[in-house]
Amino acid sequence: MSDDFILDTDDLNRRMDGAIANLRVEFASLRTGRASASILEPVMVDAYGSMTPINQVGTVNVPEPRMVTVNVWDKGLVGKVEKAIRESGLGINPQLNGTIIMLPIPELNEERRRDLTKVAGNYAESARVSIRNVRRDGMDQIKKAKNDGMSEDDQKLWESEMQDMTNDFIKRIDDQLETKQAEIMQV
Fold it and tell me: Which intervals hold domain Ribosome recycling factor (predicted)?
């Protein structure tokens, strides 16, 4: 029975790829110069009892190169949207104008660039944690197979393969982080 054990590396790879794809989306939200609607993509609003993407509670526009606006559809959610933006760690101070929230994008000074590199680092660490969680799931499958009679040699082989896969994905995250930090610090 144990000789038939095959770790579903395709599923684990797909899940790790998902963590990398999510990191790319988060990095795309870290705009270094011009305003962009994608800067608000990771922001979630507590609307109607569930966490909702900001683009599902209002229209996100970029009317000027240094301004993003959110036209909130439900007047009752304006405060929650403003709070979500303030707490998002984007370093943007929202200004209210009725149901429209204006987000002036600050000029990137040295301090702001350093803050953005820290945010990028946090996003990368979150992706690393996701990768490690997938690794843990894979290791749990291997341990279960070991308990079902897998040989110790096979266990070590599968654990080694799982660790190699994890190291590869962690390196990809580190490479992307290094690239993004260099892009942020570029004047």
Answer: 24-185
